[in-house]
UniProtKB/TrEMBL annotation:
Organism: Prunus persica
GO MF terms, alphabetically ordered: protein-macromolecule adaptor activity
Protein name from the UniProt record: Nucleoporin protein Ndc1-Nup
Keyword terms: Membrane, mRNA transport, Nuclear pore complex, Nucleus, Protein transport, Translocation, Transmembrane, Transmembrane helix, Transport
One GO term (biological process): protein transport
Membrane topology term: Multi-pass membrane protein
Amino acid sequence: MASSSPPGTVVHNRLLGFLIWQSIPSTVIFFIFKTLSSTISSTSHSTVKPPFPFAPSVFAFITFLTFHLSQLLFSFSLSLISSPHPHRLASPLQLALGLIRFLFVPGGSELSESPESRVRAKLSIGFLLFLAAVAVSGFVAMVSVCVKFGDGVGVIGAVGFRGFVMGLLYGLYYVYYRRWVFEFPIIQRPPFFSFKMGLPSAITRSLKLSCLASLFSAFLVVFLPHQLQNQATIGKVIAEQIIFYIGSFLVFLCWEISHHLHQVLHTKRFVFAPPKGSAAAETNPSEHLLSALEESSPNSLLQYLAYLDLYMVCENNVDTWRRAAFFEESGETYKRVIYVCLRPLEQLASKLGEGLESSVEKSSQISNQLLSPTDQRLDPKYSEPLNNFQLYAWCAWTAASLTTCSHREDRFGVAQLSGSNASVISTLISCLLAVESYMGKKTSLQSAQHFMGSTGFKLRTSSVGNIGMGKKRAGPLHSKAYAIADVLRNSIYHIVSTFHDQMASSAKKGLLEKDWIISDKPPFGTRELLVQKLHLFLDFRAS
C-alpha cells in the first residue's frame, strides 16, 4: 500500500515513532523489576521515617520518571551514530591534531584538512557524544532501579558509579562491534513479527552482559572495603548484589530491546509512491521514488530506503503497476532508473581501478628494490567502498531484474532502443572484473599481457592478480569482495539466461559487441575484455 507522507519526512517520522514505542517495553520491564526487588528486599525493612505520608509514593514516581528519561536519552543517542553505511572514523591522533590546529593555528583547519577528514571528525565526535550519553544513561537508570527510599548519598554514588562504568563499557561494545550499522532483513515482515523474532537474542545477550556487570560489581565491593562497613548484615549485602544483578539485567534488556526496535522500525520498507488511484499515480507515479534516489544524500538512510523500494518493485510481483510505469513511451523514466542503479557500481569499479593502478605502480618500484610485489596492500581509501555491500547487491539485482522484465513487459522497446541493456551488461561485467582483480584473480582471458585500467593506464595482469593475495584472503573486506562478485555473477547470468537466444544469434553474426557492449570506455577494463567475458557467460563457463 502506497504511503501519502512526503518522502523527506520518512526518517524524522520514524525517529519520533521509535521514541514513543520504546517507552512501552521499558514501562512493563520497570514495573516487573520493582515487584521483584520489593520481594527480595522484604527481609530488611527500612527504618527511615518518611518526612510526610506520601514521600514513598513521590519517590517511586520520581524514580519512574528518571528511569524513562535515561531510556529516552539512550534511544535518542542512537540517532547520533546509526547509519546504513559503516563509516570510517578518524583516529584519536587525527582528532587531537585537528583540535590543536583549530585552537592554536588561525585558519589551520581549513587549509590542512580535506572535506572527507572533516566528515570523519564530525562522525567521531558523534560517537564520543554517544559514549557519554550511554554512560550518563547507565548512571541514572541504575540509581532509579537500585536505590530505595531512605538510602544515603554514599549508596547513590556507589550505585551510580557502577551504572556509569557499565554504560560506558556497553557503549564501547556497541561501537566496536558496529551494532550501529542498519542491517536490512532479507525478508520484509510486519514490524510486530520482526520485533518478536529478536526478543530471544536480546534476552540472551542481556543475561550475558548482566553477568559481566555483576562480576565487575563484586570486584568493586572487594576493592572498596569502606562500603562494607556500612552494611548491617551479610544477608543485606547479598540481597543488594542480587538486586544489582536484576537491575543491570533490566537496564541491558531495555537497551537491547531499544536497539532491536530501532533496527526494525528504521529498516522497514517505505513505499515511495502516491496512493493508488490518485491523480499523481495516474500521471507520474515514479517521480517520488526517482526524486528520493537522485536528491538524497549519499549513503543516507533515505537513499537506502529508496533503493530498497526500487528493488522490491523490480524483483517481486508486487506493485506491478509501478514497474509498468518505468516502461513509458518516451523512455526517460527507464533511463533514469537504470542510471541510478548503475551509478554506484560504476563508482565502485572506478575506485577499485584507481587503487589497483596505484598499487601496481608501487609494486613496480618495490620490485626494482628486489622486494616481492605480493607484500603490497591496496590503500584503505580505495577498498573502503566494499563495505557498502547491501547497496551494491540491490543495484545489481535491480538492474538485472528490470532488464529481464523488459523482455516481456517493455511494449515500446525502450530498454533496447535507449541502449540501457548494453549499459547494464557492460557495467556489471566491468564491475565484476574490477572486484575479481581486487581478489587476485587474473583478468586476462586469452593470455593477454595487458589491459587498460579505469584511467587508460596499462595494467600488467600478473601484477594485478597478485596484489595482496597473501594478506587479504582471510580479511573481512576480501570476504565482502567474494560476496559482491557472487551477486554480480548471478545478475549477469540472470540476464544472459533470458536473452540467450538473442545474444547467441548476435554472436554468430559478429554483432555481439555492437548490440550488448557500450561504445564508450567502460569504468574498468577494455571493450575487448568485456566481450570475451560475455562469451564465457554465454557458454555458462564464467566462475
